[in-house]
Input
Amino acid sequence: MSFFTRLAFILFGRLSDSLMILFPDLKDDLKKAAMKISAREYLSNGLLGSFLFFLAEIPGLSFIFGLFSKSIALSLITSVTISALLTIIIFYLFTKYPSTIISDKSKKIDTFLPFASLFLSTIAGTKLPLNQVFKIFSQNSNYPEITQQIKTMNNDMEVFGLDVHTALQKAVDRTPSKKMKEMLYGIMSTSISGGDIAIYLREKAKSQMADYRRSLDEYSKKITVFIEVYLTAIVLGAIFFIILTSIFSGISGVGGNIILLQSLIIFIFLPLVSGAFIVLVRASSPIGE
Output
């Protein structure tokens, strides 16, 4: 345990215990995000980090507000209030960070799951025992998050001696992807009932591949809309604004302010909006890139 975590436990251990009731899903989120830390440790670290941010923020904001206000008391009260609000926001975002990791892992798993299902069905078609199917998959597959999930499950069987069905149940509880959770549960149910796992996986892969094609089609339509909005509203809008303000400045003779405004549009507004569009396009991508 690091010095920071030990200090967090000393200062905020009891408070984190009290706050656990407000974050009932945090323990499961940390497990699904593969973050090797307890919920109590995580909350304590977040409280200490937020508190240090609060202490560091007050002097800076007090100085800034002091430049615009003659009242020291007013600037101090304002800086403390804003610092407290920002600290609460930062702590809340910190508690939501595991959910962000889970969402990213889930998207990566869902991207490669149809192909991984086909690979698993091919191995299962050899009629090997189910534990051997997972072992071969974990040794020869290259589907980052999915391979890691199967490796962990294989480790549960080989190192901790769990039977394949218990390991599957733990994997169902651990995986961040709903689609993979459904697939693993289906494998477990099919195995218990004595069904053909290869056929199940083959049919599941067909269904997943159809969903994947559908998501790609929806993404291509979204990209078309994004490009039209960007070119029409942003690029052409900015060009039209620059031409219009240039004509206006020539008529009114206030060129200095117009040039400053045009510079802000070109060098600040356009790059910021372009960056926002890039983030939006990447976020809507079915492969997360």
Observations:
- Residues 27 and 38 are 7 Å apart (CA to CA).
